[in-house]
Amino acid sequence: MNLNFNRQVSIAPMLDYTDRHERYFLRLISKHILLYTEMVTTHALIHSDKNRFLRHSPFEYPLALQLGGSDPKMLAECAKMGEDAGFFEINLNCGCPSDRVQQGSFGACLMRHKDLVAECLYQMQKAMSIPVTLKTRIGIDHDDSFEFFFDFIKTQAEAGCKTFIIHARKAWLKGLSPKENRSIPPLQYSYAIELKKQLPDLHISLNGGVTSIEQIQELLTQVDGVMVGREAYENPWFLSTVDSKVFKKDTNPPANRKDLLRSFLPYIESQLKEGCPLTVISRHLVGLFNGLPGARRYRQILSNESSVANAGIEVITRAMDAVQEESP
Ligand SMILES: Cc1cc2nc3c(=O)[nH]c(=O)nc-3n(C[C@H](O)[C@H](O)[C@H](O)COP(=O)(O)O)c2cc1C
Questions:
Q1: Is 164 a domain residue?
Q2: Which of 21, 41, 49, 256 has an alpha carbon within 20 to 30 A of 245's alpha carbon?
Q3: 41: Cβ below 6 Å to ligand 1?
Q4: Active-site pick, 78, 96, 120, 161
Q5: 206 shares its domain with 230
Q6: Residue 301 falls within a domain, yes or no?
Q7: If you take atom 10 of ligand 1, which residue's CA is the nearest one?
């Protein structure tokens, strides 16, 4: 397996969004972005159908598995499962503030337990040969100073973790919903940038509020990587120039959005044959034509007709025909 991948641009793990269908679709846009799974808890991997959570296509590579948990032994076991299943990297979630996750004592609340996180990362790395990485906030509640953040990261680096993805806002553990926690605490890119200055040997990827290739290029002058979440989901076409402009590789991307969608149809058909309902895939395509004439009609057709029993790819082509695309 070629583990020599580039982390300059990655797509954020997003529960309920970055499933295997979305990832396959994004891979048609860029051959080089690093993709992440949704967060999978150690409990789910160990106690239920692990194939459901680990299933992916090699076409999605390079691909990282994100785990949620706080038991070093269980995390090590799951990290190994991830390596055996073909993932390129195992990431530990230290950024999710949801109540459910707090009840399980993992996610962002782990920032208050730096030694436990270090033990988790150490055990995970010991159990496998692919890299372990950490995705974290810059602080939680009133523990939001740069010193707190720096000390947390330094502890993890000393435990052997060399790659960090910084969602550059703190989380409030009480009083804000997960959604509010992704917009109300202000973005503070300076934390990630200063961290890179002080610990230059670490790989630092910055995450939060990135919406354009130009912004990615600008941030890459100060950090090693940029992770994009919501914009990649809501407006995926913005990634169409990432291979040429950021990775500097000519990968022959689709000429326009309709070409892209056409290239996804064989995959959709194969999934339908396996019994996957169309809506499970088509829901990821809603934002593709945003801003073009006919995009509203496209969205209407997709949402009204995809859920009809036995809906097939003709729904997608009919929806696509409603859009007037600019010439390439
Ligand atoms: C619907 C949704 C689900 C998310 N699920 C996860 C998750 O499973 N694991 C994680 O680390 N972050 C999760 N996040 C946070 C994103 O990975 C990312 O840190 C956040 O959206 C900020 O990046 P953005 O401004 O580019 O969207 C989620 C975000 C959204 C919008």
A1: yes
A2: 21
A3: no
A4: 96
A5: yes
A6: yes
A7: 13
Assess whether 43 and 114 both reside in one domain.
yes
Q: Is ligand 1 within 6 A of the CB of residue 94?
A: no
Helices (H), 173-256: 189-198, 213-219, 230-234, 242-245
Assess whether 138 and 223 both reside in one domain. yes
Specify the residue with its C-alpha closest to ligand 1, atom 26: 229
Tell me, in angstroms, the distance from the centre of ligand 1 to residue 123's CA: 25
Q: Is the CB of 14 under 6 A from ligand 1?
A: yes
- The answer to whether residue 281 sits within a structural domain is yes
Q: Are residues 167 and 133 in the same domain?
A: yes
Give the bridge partners for 63, in sequence order: 35
- For 170-194, give the DSSP string: -B-SSSS-TTGGGTSSPP-HHHHHH
276 is catalytic: no
In this structure, the answer to whether residues 179 and 229 fall within a common structural domain is: yes
In a domain, 95, yes or no: yes
Residue that finishes a domain, picked among 245, 269, 303: 245
User: Rounded distance, CA 159 to CA 155, Å?
Assistant: 6
The pTM assigned to this predicted structure is: 0.97
Is 70's C-beta closer than 6 angstroms to any atom of ligand 1?
no
Between the CA of 229 and the centroid of ligand 1 the distance, in Å, is 6
Radius of gyration of the chain (CA): 20
Which residue from 45, 36, 74, 84 is spatially nearest to 233, judged by alpha carbons? 36
Domain carrying residue 124: 9-245
Q: What's the angle, vertex CA 268, arms to CA 250 and CA 19, rounded to 5?
A: 80
Give pLDDT tens digits along the chain (328 positions). 556 789 999 999 999 999 999 999 999 999 999 999 999 999 999 999 999 999 999 999 999 999 999 999 999 999 999 999 999 999 999 999 888 887 888 899 999 999 999 999 999 999 999 999 999 999 999 999 999 999 999 999 999 999 999 999 999 998 899 999 999 999 999 999 999 999 999 999 999 999 999 999 999 999 999 999 999 999 999 999 999 999 999 878 899 999 999 999 999 999 999 999 999 999 999 999 999 999 999 999 999 999 998 999 999 999 999 999 866 5
CATH number of the CATH domain containing 280: 1.20.120
